[in-house]
Write a structure and sequence with these properties.
This protein is mainly α. The protein has helices at residues 14-20, 32-37, 41-47, 60-73, 77-87, 95-101, 113-128, 133-142, 145-167. The protein contains nine helices and no strands.
Amino acid sequence: MTNTLAPMREPFSDDIARVLSNYPTVDGYLLRLFRTFANSRRFLEKGVPNLLDRASPLDLRTREIVILRVTALNRCEYEWGVHVSAFGTAAGLSAAQIDDSASDRVDPELWSSEELQLIHAIDELCTSGNLDDPTLKRFQDRWTAEQQLEIFSLCGAYSTISFVANAARLPCEDFAARFPQAAKR
């Protein structure tokens, strides 16, 4: 047994293979991140909720804004790049918005007022773990209780994913986008 957090290699044990069979692949390829989760069956099954289903109370664009911003704030190029490549176009995000999602301060000219409020809330949640009163009021006025919980859950899940990918030093997938030069530090 090794203490290094790294992607597992095949052959997987039967119980791990069974759980991994429920994870999505890219043309049959199982992402490094998912193979890293396989270091713990418990984590693989329970560590990160799958919030990428059609039952989400959030539309795809909103969901991806949350994910891109959280992974960028956590400096997780691996997961940011996977989501840009897998969902960016389908979510209707422009190249400028995608690049801006990884910036220290977003350009208000690129986003709707609702999207700016969402990004501001994400930034507060990820830096302080809370929302100040004015941000909370706007957040509650805009989002239903179910949507609020989904946004909080996405922030938590993708922070966890960022921690795992960053600590495992996962190299970007070959198909994945890379942070814009301005976002690289």
